[in-house]
Amino acid sequence: IHESHFLNSLSSLSVDAETLQKQIDELSSFSDSPAPSVTRILYSEKDVLSRRYIKNLMEASGLSVREDAIGNIFGRWTGSEPELAPVSTGSHTDAIPYSGKYDGVVGVLGAIEAINVLKRSSFKPKRSLDVIMFTSEEPTRFGIGCLGSRLLAGSKELAQQLEKTVDGQNVSFFYAAKSAGYMNVEKLSTVFLEKGSYSAFVELHIEQGPILEEEATSIGIVTAIAAPASIKVDFEGTGGHAGAVLMPKRNDAGLAAAELALAVEKHVLESGSIDTVGTVGILELHPGAINSIPSKSHLEIDTRDIDEERRNSVIDKIYESALSISKRRGVKLSEYKIVNQDPPALSDELIIKAAESASQELELTYKKMISRAYHDALFMARVSPMGMIFIPCYKGYSHKPEEFATIDHIADGVKVLALTLAKLSLS
Amino acid sequence: IHESHFLNSLSSLSVDAETLQKQIDELSSFSDSPAPSVTRILYSEKDVLSRRYIKNLMEASGLSVREDAIGNIFGRWTGSEPELAPVSTGSHTDAIPYSGKYDGVVGVLGAIEAINVLKRSSFKPKRSLDVIMFTSEEPTRFGIGCLGSRLLAGSKELAQQLEKTVDGQNVSFFYAAKSAGYMNVEKLSTVFLEKGSYSAFVELHIEQGPILEEEATSIGIVTAIAAPASIKVDFEGTGGHAGAVLMPKRNDAGLAAAELALAVEKHVLESGSIDTVGTVGILELHPGAINSIPSKSHLEIDTRDIDEERRNSVIDKIYESALSISKRRGVKLSEYKIVNQDPPALSDELIIKAAESASQELELTYKKMISRAYHDALFMARVSPMGMIFIPCYKGYSHKPEEFATIDHIADGVKVLALTLAKLSLS
Ligand SMILES: [Mn+2]
Ligand SMILES: [Mn+2]
Ligand SMILES: [Mn+2]
Ligand SMILES: [Mn+2]
Q1: What are the tens digits of pLDDT across the range A394-407?
Q2: In chain A, how many H helices and how many E strands?
Q3: Type and span of the H or E element at A151
Q4: Could you tell me which chain A residue has the CA closest to the CA of B98?
Q5: Which band of pLDDT confidence, cut at 50, 70 and 90, is reported for residue B1?
Q6: Residue B227 touches chain A, beta carbons under 8 Å
Q7: In what order do the strands lie in the sheet containing B227-236?
Q8: If you measure from the C-alpha of residue B375 to the centroid of ligand 3, how many angstroms do you get, rounded to a whole number?
């Protein structure tokens, strides 16, 4: 079968939308918070269940499954020329606390269904096709986003860091991985992929923004992924009794944190670009009692931009604010740590073209766009040409229970993914 | 024995400082956080252990012990005229998270030692003497400060409220009390004391402020207790993905909370009086993930003043700020609840006089002062003439591990308490 032959049978690309929806619903039931919210944390019991579920589906689709030392899962459909670098696709199934059931999941279950679509249409791959479920795209448990893909991309810094990484309950990364069955987790360097291991990586994902829905466009083709950075800040003050310590004697670490949170917003708004965003998603006070002046506070700040320099200048200003707040309030800036400060990634022109032709051939409207959220694709771009396919989601909602995508939009995304993978496999 | 005879033997008032220090140290080991911090939460295992410890000491001192339905503990030394209203003293042993070992404890262990002092000096009480350990002075678990003394003082609102009160883990007050062995907790009205049940109540406590230490004064005699109020506030915004939602589309509940925290400080400073204080000790974000815009926030605000009207005007301004922040940021003010708003209490003139003469006779320096922290004495004042004796504490520190009082200052406080109780018992 060569491409033109295959393309003649486009009408045979049929998605089993009903089964796919059932799988999305089933997977969402592996959750540590009540429906409709989803909470699925790395190496938790629910994460292990979702891993088993994905491996079973991969096997049912005839893929040969392997897992690496940290639990990145690979399902391979071997092509007719297995010596060529394979084409890969995939996403994640972990979910931050009280989030939704589509983020990541659509790119894993959708990828397996894309394989099914191609199999049903009698497509035969030339390059092998890999479906990947990445370990811990979300930073929830160990504070490290895209842990799995970052390590796949060969980050030696991360490998070193993971040897001493612990979670909020002081459980080590190694111990947690072993609890989930990954007994060889300490062999971190076995996870690294060489550059060129894949000829392409394509990730299907909900947009997590409102543009496609507002413009009634079916498909987004990502040209670049914004540059994310995250920062941890700790302030330490004197604390004391909320009744007895008079206002002039206070060094309130909680008010320092409140000021810094507002300063983050101010610096982001001052950047002059709509593309700069900044968020304080975590703000914790110690000891956390109504009648106790906060003696410590902890913030985690996320800031992103499509322009790396502009984002870095926001980070500099946040640091200056942290310093001046600390001085003015007489609290100690006991930690200011840039946890990661990643550059943006550009999509590969050939993959963009493949996704464009796929959309055109399937008669779906599409637009080229920027991804403001980061994805495993950001790190896969370090070792492979990369591209992403977006589908519309309700009001752009994500990371909350209201996150929603219609099964028709998902099915369209799966079709475009299937056809794009087919093209890339034959190229 | 009449007063003049007893007063001649003042030199016989000797405190067993070594044993008292040992007891303070032992009690601090019943803690859910590592030393030197103390965490002892109502009806927890450690609270139950501390209750047993106190009852054993009361029995060892020859007191007859009773507990009421919610676990207020009374140890009685029956006087020669048991039909007269007794004199009472006492404080609490619960401790907020990561606090110290003196707050409350000095007024319970010190009261038992004051009884020992009087017994060793061959004093015979006319009015009976009651040592009370109050249940839950701290609001930690159920958000209600002075729960035990408030109920003793006959608060029917509190009794009603307790029927449906739950803690942060949704454990009901009744269930928690039963777990600690108080099976009759539902009979709340049996806890009420009638007005006149006691002829006097005197509480010994560390100052929790720096004045006595700075002025090198041994004893503080409290003339009034400041008026405390506490408020709970919830904001609800839209939440969403920290990368994908652009700044103009945000309704960040966390930034609303940060603004309100700073507004509390501003309104308190604007009151024009050094006596006005306000604190945001609790500020929580939901879902609490670095890459998620806070969709909900929760604040708990404590504000106090010796002037009730001035404090209430601060509360009004905080409410206005909450409303205007909510409007400006497009977040919902889903809760604004004044949990309690208590009036100040004045000490009884005769008790003040008794404590003054006691200090003079013991040749200890003393000063009359205001209590900015509230105490069980604030509520005992509703059913009994009330007074308080303060002792110096290191730098005024309280509600943190660095809280400290020298055993010499504690022993002086115990002596003044003993002599004051003796005077009140004979009057
Ligand atoms: Mn996500
Ligand atoms: Mn995702
Ligand atoms: Mn206290
Ligand atoms: Mn206290």
Answers
A1: 999 999 999 999 99
A2: 13, 17
A3: helix A147-152
A4: A287
A5: very low
A6: no
A7: B277-286, B296-305, B227-236, B332-341
A8: 8
Q: What pLDDT shows up at residue A312? A: 96
Minimum CA–CA partner of A252 in chain B: B279
CA B205 to ligand 4 center in whole angstroms: 7
Region A378-382: mean pLDDT is 97
Give the Cα separation of B170 and B281 in Å (integer). 21
Strands B87-92 and B200-206: parallel
Cβ–Cβ < 8 Å for B48, B180:
yes
* pLDDT exceeds cutoff 70 at A8: no
pLDDT, tens only, A55-102:
999 999 999 999 999 999 999 999 999 999 999 999 999 999 999 999
* CB < 8 Å to B286, chain A: 98
CB atoms within 10 A of CB B262: 17
In single-letter form, the type of residue at position A185 comes to V
Distance A102 CA to ligand 1 centre (A): 9
**The token pair that represents A330 in the structure block:** 């007489």
Q: How far is CA B99 from CA A224, B36, B250, B297, B387, in A?
A: 51, 9, 38, 25, 25
| Cβ atoms B200, B358 nearer than 8 A | no
Is the Cβ pair A246, B274 closer than 8 Å? Answer: yes
Which B residues in the span 68-97 are in contact with A, Cβ-Cβ below 8 Å? Answer: 96-97
Q: Which domains does chain B have, with CATH numbers?
A: 3-226+344-426 (3.40.630.10), 228-341 (3.30.70.360)
Q: How many helices (H) and strands (E) does chain B have?
A: 13, 17
| Amino acid sitting at position A142 | F
In sequence order, the β-bridge partners of residue B286 are: B296
Question: Is the alpha carbon torsion for A96, A100, A103, A105 positive or negative?
Answer: positive
**Cβ-contact A113, A136 below 8 angstroms:** no
The residue written with tokens 């550009």 in the block is: A346
CA distances from A53 to A93, A102, A152, B227 (A): 11, 16, 22, 59
Cβ atoms of residues A293 and A244 within 8 Å: no
